[in-house]
Every structure is written in C-alpha cells, then in structure tokens.
Amino acid sequence: xxxxxxxxxxxxxxxxxxxxxxxxxxxxxxxxxxxxxxxxxxxxxxxxxxxxxxxx
Length: 56
What we know:
The protein is of the alpha+beta class.
C-alpha cells in the first residue's frame, strides 16, 4: 500500500466503542482551547512534513 494520509471526522466513529485517537498532528497550529483528553503522540507541522519529505 502506498503512503497516504487518511482523515475523517470524529463523529463518524460514534458507533465504535473501542476507537482511540492516539495521535495529534500540527499541534503548533491548533487553537489553545483544543486538546484531546487522553495522552497522544503529538507532532508539530515541521515534524509531519519531515516524515513525508524523507519518503521522497
């Protein structure tokens, strides 16, 4: 499977009981009031782009 980015609205997963959001990307651009309640792997925009650039 080629590298790709998949995104979805959280509301799509209301019916799934064991779904966990464990990563946040572009945390340096998020509003101050926005944060997940659970511990997550956080990445800045620079870190995200570095991953995609090294795959070229």
